[in-house]
Amino acid sequence: MNKLDIDYKNLLSDVIEMGVDKDDRTGTGTRSIFGATIRHNMSDGFPILTTKKVAFNTMVTELKWFLRGDTNIEYLHKNNCHIWDGDYEKSGRTDGSLGPIYGKQWRDINGIDQLENLITGLISNPNSRRHLVSAWNVEELDQMTLPPCHYSFQCYVANGKLSLMWNQRSADLFLGVPFNISSYGLLLLLLCKETGYEPGELIGNFGDLHLYQNHLEQAMEQTIRDGYDLPEIELICYDIYRGDFDAELINYKSHPAIKAPLSN
Description:
Blueprint lengths: L2 H16 L1 E3 L7 E12 L14 H13 L4 H6 L6 H7 L10 H6 L6 H11 L7 E3 L15 E9 L2 E12 L3 H20 L2 E15 L3 H8 L8 E8 L4 E7 L14
Parallel strand pairs: 5-6
Antiparallel strand pairs: 1-2, 2-6, 3-4, 4-5, 7-8
């Protein structure tokens, strides 16, 4: 079994066995631990779980949306992506906007295009320790339908390889984290295409890492599944700034999806 699935299942077990039961804003309740990390060497294959099927195309659509700087749900609906519907409906908005969430901050935080600055810096000054993009804009948090859960990512260049580490204040381990792993893995590969570096390591840091109470049985089911070899990915990037790229998984074999309700 691949290391990514082993490490992910270990996180599931840690939360199930050592987590503290807590109330949360959705009213569902969680079992939670604080502080955890997952690491993946990109040379081992594309980082997508095989112990359950992950909706790859939905993840790709959301990442394209972020990269475009778009925050309107219309783009997602046009591409059959509905993962933000619950948050949008709960917000009471009627104009399609989710407020100045991820894409807005990545591409226009107080007039600064962080994505463009990141790519320029990676090429011109690879040893800098400032290759960082933040979505946590304190001035605009109250305007967002949902404050960013994965609030920043940092890049690092060494020996011709580009690594990426993202930070997450709140991590829905069963539904959200599998998307986050694959999304940031794909972002890392896109940045490599743009800068010419080879992919290095993908690292995720989690603050409040939790399972919702109505995900516990599903999580336990996943822990007893053995994973398969990780797939490869065929990626063509036309324009990263427009979220214009094609991505296709090669030889993705997985167990069936495990359904669980989304808490908003």
